[in-house]
Task: inverse folding
């Protein structure tokens, strides 16, 4: 194995969900390991449980200290944190114990990335409620990561499906609170974040489409004035900054413009406005990028799938895509 390959830290995710299973299934695929060196991170007992569920046995070195990891031993090794006994958990149920371990483990991974022990962080699905109840008072992991790295603004989630990226102005808030949070400053921030992130992904002059908030783009104010008051001025300001941006386009047609307008990214106004479209187009392949942070962090766009946890039927493709994207991004930065 070449020591020049990106070192990807791969966390097992919430142990009560499908994370251990899909991690095993991904590691078993040679294509995933061909361009990177993966350090699996978590409790090894949980990873062994994942192998049992997936009915796949893997051979790999296990380490207690990352300083001892030998990258010449193959393309995959496991760093055993010894921090979670799976016998204390019930698959498919929210566990504050598992949530705390998730928070503790991700905190460690951020430290490893900042200290250059790993080149990117990839994690299998976690459960936000479990994380919160486990002692990490954040509504989502992006806020948690920003807190750890003391990033105050300019960060947010981006979703990737194939060559299409999406960003959003608001995220994990009540639908009732969306409109009052659509400000010119926040719309412009989402556009500039999309532009800078895609340029980091080696797309030199990305074309970004911006979605409207109201039906039919507000119909000149008949159905709402957010477009006129905030979204259009933000788009105009982004153009003055040299960003290749178009819109706002009606939310019910903007995804139809991907090919006709050759869009690289779409900025939506709220969570489900973009996520419904992305998951319809490729639920099992979508990736979330925690953008605007000093390190690379990716994860599948889907959740812990408690309803099928332990059944051995989980699809690992989104986790695979998260690893492949993180590998590309790490290679671009090297």
Result:
């Amino acid at each position: 194995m070449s020591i020049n390959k990106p070192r990807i830290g791969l966390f097992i995710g919430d142990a009560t969900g499908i994370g251990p299973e899909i991690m095993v299934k991904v590691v078993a695929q040679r294509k995933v390991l061909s361009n990177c060196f993966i350090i699996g991170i978590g409790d090894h007992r949980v990873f062994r449980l994942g192998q049992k569920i997936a009915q796949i046995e893997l051979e790999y070195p296990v380490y207690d200290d990352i300083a001892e990891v030998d990258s010449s031993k193959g393309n995959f090794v496991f760093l055993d944190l010894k921090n979670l006994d799976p016998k204390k958990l019930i698959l498919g149920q929210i566990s504050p114990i598992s949530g705390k371990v998730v928070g503790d483990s991700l905190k460690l991974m951020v430290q490893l990335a900042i200290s250059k022990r790993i080149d990117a962080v990839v994690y299998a699905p976690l459960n936000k409620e479990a994380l919160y109840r486990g002692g990490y008072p954040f509504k989502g992991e992006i806020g948690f990561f920003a807190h750890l790295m003391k990033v105050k603004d300019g960060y947010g989630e981006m979703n990737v499906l194939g060559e299409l990226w999406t960003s959003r102005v608001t995220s994990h808030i009540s639908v009732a609170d969306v409109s009052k949070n659509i400000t010119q400053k926040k719309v412009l921030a989402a556009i500039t974040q999309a532009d800078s992130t895609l340029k980091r992904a080696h797309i030199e002059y990305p074309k970004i489409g911006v979605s409207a908030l109201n039906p039919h783009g507000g119909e000149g104010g008949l159905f709402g004035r957010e477009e006129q008051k905030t979204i259009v001025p933000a788009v105009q300001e982004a153009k003055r900054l040299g960003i290749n941006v178009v819109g706002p386009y009606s939310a019910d047609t903007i995804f139809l413009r991907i090919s006709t307008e050759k869009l690289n990214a779409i900025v939506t106004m709220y969570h489900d406005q973009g996520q419904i479209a992305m998951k319809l187009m490729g639920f099992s392949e979508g990736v979330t990028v925690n953008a605007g942070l000093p390190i690379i962090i990716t994860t599948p766009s889907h959740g812990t799938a408690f309803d099928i946890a332990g059944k051995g039927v989980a699809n690992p493709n989104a986790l695979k895509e998260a690893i492949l994207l993180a590998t590309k991004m790490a290679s671009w930065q090297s």
About this structure: The two ends are 18 Å apart (CA to CA).
